[in-house]
Amino acid sequence: MSNIVKTKALTKKYHGFAAVDGVNMSIEKGDIYALIGENGAGKSTLMKMLSGLAAPTSGEVVLFENKHPEVARFRMGCLIDSPALDSRLTVRDNLEMFSRAFGCHKEGEVDRILKLVGMDGNANKVIKKTSLGMKQRLAIGIALLGSPDFLILDEPMNGLDPMGIQEIRQLLKKLNAENQTTILISSHLLDEVSKVATRYGFMKAGHLISELSNEELEEKSKTCLRLKVSDTAKAAMVCEKDLGTNNYEVMDAEYVRLFDYVDESAKVVTAMVRGGVEVGEMVRMGESLEEFFNNLMTAREEQ
Amino acid sequence: MLNAMRASFYKMFRDKAFGICLAGTVAWALVVIMAQVLTSHARGIEDVSQLANRWYGFIGLHVIEVPLIVSAVLLFSGEFQDKSWKLLIAKGISKTSYFFSKLVSMLCLTVIISFISILTLAICNVALLHATMDAAYVGNVIRFFFAETAAHFSIAVLVITLICIIKRGDIASILSLFLMVFGYVMLSGVEKAFSLGEVITDFWAFSQTAFVEFNGPVAWGRIGISLLGHLVICSLLAITVLSRKDID
Fold first, then answer.
1. CB-CB under 8 Å, B83 with A100
2. pLDDT in tens, B49-87
3. Is B6 on the interface with A (CB under 8 A)?
4. Domains of chain A and any CATH numbers
5. What is the rounded distance in angstroms from the CA atom of residue B60 to the CA atom of residue B110?
6. pTM as predicted
7. Which residue segment(s) compose the domain that B161 sits in?
């Protein structure tokens, strides 16, 4: 089985408003899939439909290649919205209770989870007296009970300090590497997400507008020289004949991106001028995930 | 459903509120019995031992219902308010299974509250009202315990259904207490308006305790039909409401 999640035209409407609109999404086994979007893009709603907390208005969800997702959900662990914990019980008691509810209670399981999420020193603290970061760690721990095959984590880094973010990031990578745990994660911390994700899904206004692998994203956002030229056709010829590279992209009537000679801008300008091409502007560019995301959202708005 | 029940029991017995509920049950029973003793003179009862077997006087003061409603709200409404129940649903436990696990937990709570309450009353009867502690008395107390517990099952079903539907402990408790006090009157009004006799009020949850006497017959059939009716109606209602709504 290689397909963990497959959605087909998945839609959720609230009083006629489409919070999620016709999403076709696929997550393969072993992926760390980052779902990225602005506030209100539909990420949480999509995650709720995958975890059974919201019923789709239309469309289909297939989990673990099973068209009856409710049967497969015992293999999942979820953290949706804010941590949902019993505030009168202790950290340990919450884990004990949920381990029984999930049918995975066994000797040592709670201690294993406490250690995994760094809460072993706070096991006997009542939830009411814990910080947001501790609650978040515990919520992640509850999602990890029973070693699920698929994790859905909605903003898991919320409330964590930098050390905590690093620990959780390393934990997710470890789970993915050692157990082939598939992970769907949403986060506003794009830089953090880019350090763990292997695939990205970009959402805007309920639509999944783009899906890219890590390699594809790197390809699209890699460092280049962007030139504003008087003649893009001539500029292309200069790149191929004089600079000896076809690693360039003509963007439109005025702009060309050159992915080689990034640190040799003088050489590029000289070659262009000799080839009869006027260079009006030259900028070194390299999109981070955040820049790529912002440009993608802007381009979508303009459409 | 078994797993959800195990979790429910684990939580119930670990929650500090459970101890408070039991202490409250004892305290309420003591208040009720002391009220009987202290008002005996005003009611023309000079010898308090006459009150010893007037258990209808204790039950009529809701000695089990009030602690049951308060305990249920304290122990079960929190899961909806802190939304921890969504983790069980996300793990594949159906809303139907979840509701029935709460129902079973509630019925167990009814047994515990009834036992504590009746035990307190039985001891106070002997200690304060000079009831004779003989085999007949003990036999009556045991029989009374089973009968009253069964009579209160319908109330338990109604209360847990309200908690599951409303999902707010404060509103569920107010509504439960309102139904306890005014439910009979309202239903009686409906019966009179539609000339239904006593077909509704006879089987109303809060009426069942009237069919239990301490040293007299128990209307087991009526109690059973009331329980079955409440189970069917409340379960259908709760499952319909829970199933139709998304979990935020």
1. no
2. 777 666 766 777 788 888 889 888 888 888 888 888 999
3. yes
4. 3-218 (3.40.50.300), 222-286 (3.30.70)
5. 17
6. 0.82
7. 2-244
